[in-house]
Design goal:
The complex is a heterodimer of chains A (275) and B (282).
Chain A lengths: L1 H7 L6 H26 L2 H8 L2 H7 L2 H32 L4 H16 L2 H15 L8 H28 L2 H9 L4 H31 L15 H12 L3 H29 L4
Helix pairs in contact in A: 5-6, 5-8, 5-10, 5-11, 6-8, 7-8, 8-10, 9-10, 10-12, 11-12
Chain B lengths: L18 E12 L2 E12 L3 E5 L6 H8 L7 E6 L2 E2 L7 H6 L1 E4 L11 H11 L5 H14 L15 H13 L5 E5 L7 H16 L3 E5 L3 H7 L2 E6 L2 E7 H6 L4 H11 L1 H18 L4
Parallel strand pairs in B: 3-8, 3-9, 6-7, 7-8
Antiparallel strand pairs in B: 1-2, 1-4, 4-5, 9-10
Classes of the chains: A mainly alpha (275), B alpha/beta (282).
The complex binds adenosine-5'-triphosphate and magnesium ion.
Family (chain B): Belongs to the ABC transporter superfamily.
Keywords (chain B): Amino-acid transport, ATP-binding, Cell membrane, Membrane, Nucleotide-binding, Transport
Subcellular location (chain B): Cell membrane
Chain lengths: 275, 282
């Protein structure tokens, strides 16, 4: 009885047929949506606002020589400070001296738990209030670098620690048995291997920092210190047009997408275990 | 006396017959687990001593106590007269004079064979790059790998990696060499090359303390054999006597297990299968 109904199944469609129909419906919806947008959108206005060539032309070359350049500088300085600080915190985290370990743990938890904007405000507003007449040195570059670096160090410390722990124990033993000190073995043997392991996540961190450098917006920077986001926002206001924001966005993608691809490729390569 | 005076790593400059390694009342516990329960024996300069014994008897721990990779719980270890177990000793200076070869090679994967042999010379002995590399080449040649100087460890077979590891230790000009089952991780057909290098080293007069399961090597090369079980030395003496005419029942039953051809073949098969599946490129 059951066999008979399964074979006949006059009401239902076969599974293959059903899948075909479902596919056609999905293509159909997509096509309708595209046509609707094409017909309903006010293309001239959109073009004028989002892809205005006159507005775009006025952005150059400053958006590159000032905006893009400053984004790169803030990111690089933040990354440098984060890397050095992160390495120190990672080594403290692995230290055999308990207070160092406690400090590192507290540092990591605190700075991973705070909004980056609050750290920026602390550096730019809080420090001068607390120490009148004093400021984080290095102007906008210094302040941004410190704010970004201090926060990034918390993430990088965990990454670096995991990299160090991923290096087999025998490596340290082999180095020590050759007479190297702990520090010497770290420098020449362990860290070079650890950093090779964590290049992909560090590249990712660089992408995040590049985007986060936009928070400089809240520091009150001079015209010369503007990076992409502030530049795009200011020019959008001046020109009464959205195009600068779009162009600034494209500039970010020019940096971040290749970095992301690179990071993914490196990761892929490591997974395949090539050198 | 300093290793730097002997750039070629010429073995055994201590007075022949003097004590190269003295182990006195050595104890080591991991928590409640007492692994070494009072070990006493000496290795004279120029002597080759093989340590044999069942798995878990504490052979590796003993070796690692000699260069303080493990800190002994009690007892004294002296190497060429320097008390290693003295809390005030400069342990890095002591380790420089003790070469160690591990079961798992532990080559530095980010460096070439040449880099592996040169790095500690440069960082520890402060030799300049040219000199360190010259001595590295000499030592790689000595272990039969003159043509592999630029290869990375991943490009070498297990036997070649272990020989690089030996060259790396020799380049520091050690007074004694410790080997912890140097051939146990190797495919059977690669064991011979490594044992050959060790044999040549022994003939050149190097002081060697070797943990091994290679009974033929122990019989032919070792001056003395030490049989350990349960964290104590059960029996020691000339290789020929301990291996062919053991005095203790525990030594006899261990040797019967190791030397029994059928049991040995089964063990070998397992070992090489494990090796192949974990490292198909070798
Ligand atoms: N770091 C450690 N922490 C805790 N226990 C350890 C440690 N190292 C070794 N042991 C224990 O000490 C005992 C002896 O180990 P050891 O490695 O010295 O034996 P072995 O004679 O070298 O054995 P094998 O022939 O298998 O290499 C084992 O029971 C082991 O579990
Ligand atoms: Mg062992």
């Amino acid at each position: 009885m059951t066999v008979g109904t399964a074979k006949a199944a006059p009401a239902g469609m076969s599974r293959r047929r059903r899948r075909q129909v479902s596919l056609w419906i999905q293509y159909g919806i997509f096509a309708v949506a595209v046509v609707a947008i094409a017909l309903l959108a006010d293309w001239p206005t959109l073009r004028l606002n989002f892809a205005n060539w006159d507005a775009a032309r006025q952005l150059f070359p400053d958006i590159v020589t000032v905006g893009l350049r400053n984004t790169a500088v803030y990111t690089a300085v933040g990354f440098g400070i984060g890397l050095v600080l992160g390495l120190v915190v990672a080594l403290m985290r692995l230290s055999s001296v308990p207070p160092y370990r406690w400090f590192a743990t507290v540092y990591i938890e605190v700075f991973r738990g705070l909004p980056l904007l609050l750290i920026f405000i602390f550096v730019s507003v809080g420090v001068p209030l607390a120490f009148p007449g004093k400021n984080v040195p290095g102007g906008a570059v210094g302040q941004t670098g410190v704010a970004l670096g201090v926060a990034a160090a918390a993430y990088m410390a965990e990454t670096i620690r995991s990299g160090i722990e991923a290096v087999p124990r025998g490596q340290l033993e082999a180095a020590r048995s050759l007479g190297m000190s702990y520090g010497g073995a770290m420098r020449s043997i362990i860290l070079p291997q650890a950093f090779r392991i964590i290049i992909p996540p560090l590249t990712n961190q660089l992408v995040l920092l590049c985007k986060d450098s936009s928070l400089v917006l809240f520091l009150g920077v001079t015209l010369e210190q503007r990076e992409l986001t502030k530049f795009g926002r200011d020019l959008a206001g001046q020109l009464g047009n959205t195009t600068p924001i779009i162009v600034a966005g494209i500039c970010y993608l020019i940096i971040t997408i290749p970095l992301s691809l690179l990071s993914r490729r490196l990761e892929e390569r490591q997974r395949r275990g090539q050198r | 006396m300093s290793a730097g005076d002997r750039p070629g790593g010429l073995p055994g400059d201590s007075a022949p017959g003097g004590e190269a390694i003295e182990i006195i009342g050595l104890r080591k516990a991991f928590g409640a687990n007492e692994v070494l329960r009072g070990i006493d024996f000496h290795v004279r300069a120029g002597e080759v001593v093989c340590v044999i014994g069942p798995s878990g008897s504490g052979k590796s721990t003993l070796l690692r106590c000699v260069n303080l990779l493990e800190e002994p719980t009690a007892g004294t270890v002296r190497v060429s007269g320097t008390e290693v177990t003295d809390p005030d000793v400069d342990i890095d200076a002591v380790r420089r004079r003790i070469g160690m070869v591990f079961q798992s090679f532990n080559l530095f994967p980010h460096l070439t064979a040449l880099g592996n042999v040169a790095i500690a010379q440069r960082k520890v002995l402060r030799r300049d790059r040219a000199e360190a590399e010259r001595i590295a080449r000499e030592n790689l040649e000595r272990v039969g790998l003159a043509d592999k100087v630029d290869a990375y460890p991943a490009q070498l077979s297990g036997g070649q990696q272990q020989r690089v590891a030996i060259a790396r230790a020799l380049a520091m000009g050690p007074e004694v060499m410790l080997f912890d089952e140097p051939t146990s991780a190797l495919d059977p057909e690669l064991v011979g090359d490594v044992l050959g290098v060790m044999r040549t080293l022994a003939e050149a007069g190097m002081t060697m303390l070797v943990v091994t399961h290679e009974m033929s090597f122990a019989r032919e090369v070792a001056d003395r054999v030490v049989f350990m079980d349960g964290g104590v030395v059960v029996e020691e003496g000339p290789a020929s006597r301990v291996i062919t005419d053991p005095q203790h029942e525990r030594t006899r039953s261990f040797l019967a297990r190791v030397l029994d051809p059928a049991a040995a073949r089964v063990g070998e098969g397992e070992a090489s299968d494990r090796f192949r599946s974990s490292d198909p490129g070798a």
